[in-house]
Amino acid sequence: MTGTAVPASADTSGGTGNTGVTRTAEAGGGIRAQVKRRPPAEPRTPPLRLRGPDGRPLRVAHLTTVDTSLHFLLATELKVDLEAGFDTYGISAPGPYVDQLTAIGVRHEPLHHLTRAWQPRADAAAARELLAVLDRLRPDVLHTHDPKTGVLGRVLGRLAHVPVVVNTCHGLRTQAHDGFAKRAFVLGAEAFAARFSHAELYQNAEDRRTLARAVPARRSRVVGNGVDLTRFATDPGDRARTRARLRAELGVGPEELLVGGVGRRVAEKGIGGYAEAARSLAGKARFVWIGPDDPDKPDKPGAHGAESGVESGIEFLGARSDMPAVYAALDVFVLPSYRERFSRSGMEAAAGGLPMVLSDIRGCREIGTHDEHLLLTPPGDARALTSALDRLLTEPGLRERLGAAARHRARAHFDQRAVARVSLETYAAVARAKGLPWTVD
User: Fold this and answer.
1) Contact 359/177 with Cβ under 8 angstroms?
2) Would you give the DSSP letter of residue 17?
3) Residue 260: which of 247, 244, 248 has the closest Cα?
């Protein structure tokens, strides 16, 4: 299978500009899409308006494993597609967020046999379901996400003759310290599936370098990642009132410092080391963790240091739907993960102007530079984590400096609308290179 070159002029942290696509002859008779450099786009720049043959709306389908990913990770991208006039579909296993997707105008197509884990019998049934959906919808674009559906979707999308197949790598599910068998499986599956796409989009440059031998640079691009910045662009007075309300709800005093982490309550988030740091710093702050349990990936016994969140030094608040208010209530954000693809909670904390301590790993390093935007500590090093948190708790000037720098970086690099626009530009570039009869407004 061969792919098509994609535009490559965007800032690799996720910002992008308006682009113009031209066609030039490439050695061997291929077509290479070139992009003219333009000034960076404003967050509310209208999306490209692509139309199919005879001006009909394009049918664009996003494929993920679960509807949670469609709702939480791709909501802004789906909204941009709708604003661009696409007939927009979300394909995933059914779940609790289907109604919310439908409410914004996304048409959900369920794959009832699709699971997060690799299960050969269920995967074969899910593949048959996906082929049937693609045959019925006949999408113009299939945009795949997540490791498992990225593999299935790219292969089956091309077999189903979808005109444009694009994949976003949200982060390879392997780290350098993983065993050979796991790394070989993950990288081998990605390299194989990438042969079937027309374009590969990466959220971080490390993953693109890792797969450079399998995916030619001419059809890959680092696009970064983003969040909906409008959720954090609140009036200072409103933010102060929100902060006071939630802290009162949690019983946090006006002068008390509140440290919090956000994510699934699983061992790989480094919660054990965080609990150890919290116990060492008891009396200097309150320490909380916000996020749901993950029944598919439970913690090992004793991962938090004790069965009770209070006894471990951390108060576990469970999942919350008012995350902008949560970030407003915090004084320090912490994420001591062992693995991250591209930390969404880190981007949200940066957008909220919080000083942060993150693990020095791929997926966290992209959030910012050590001692400029945040503090980085080695994963699994509770002593280093304790020291970094202690610095932030005892140096208000450092908290203020890092928080302001993080907010500025988020505004410059973590706008999900800009990332979504890159997807549209990529669809247009592939269509132009293939000679598809689309129009671009």
Assistant:
1) no
2) B
3) 247
Amino acid identity for residue 198 in this structure: H
| 402: enclosing H helix or E strand | helix 396-413
- pLDDT tens track for 40-81: 444 456 668 899 988 999 999 999 999 999 998 999 999 999
Determine the 3-state secondary structure of 208 from DSSP. Answer: helix
Residue 93 phi/psi, 5-degree rounding, is -65, 145
C-beta neighbour count of 30 within 10 angstroms: 13
Percentages (nearest 5) of helix, strand, coil residues in the chain: 40, 20, 40
Structure tokens that stand for 344 in this block: 């969404």
Taking a C-beta distance cutoff of 8 angstroms, is the pair 425, 19 a contact? yes
How far apart are alpha carbons 240 and 153 in whole angstroms? 45
Amino acid, single-letter form, for residue 26: E
pLDDT digits (tens, 9 = 90+) for 346-359: 999 999 999 999 99
Task: Tell me what the pLDDT averaged over the chain comes to.
Answer: 87
Q: Classify the C-alpha dihedral 158-160-165-170 as positive or negative.
A: negative
User: Using the 8-state DSSP alphabet, how is residue 372 labeled?
Assistant: T
Which of 430, 439, 435, 424 minimizes the C-alpha distance to 46?
A: 424
CA dist 9 and 12 (Å) reads: 9
Give the DSSP letter of residue 58: P
From 35, 53, 46, 6, select the one nearest 439 (Cα to Cα): 53
435: left (phi over 0), alpha (psi -120 to 50) or beta: left
Non-local (6+) Cβ contacts of 242 within 8 A are: 234, 324, 325, 328, 329
Tokens coding 82: 């709708």
Nearest to 360 by CA among 382, 344, 338, 342: 338
User: Residue 375: pLDDT above 80?
Assistant: yes
Q: pTM value? A: 0.80
Beta bridge partners of 377: 359
Dump the DSSP string for 33-55: EEE---PBPPTTPPPP-EE-GGG
Name the DSSP class of 369: -
- Token duo for residue 165: 């197949």
pLDDT for residue 266 is more than 60: yes
What is the chain's length? 441
Tokens matching residue 416: 């999900």
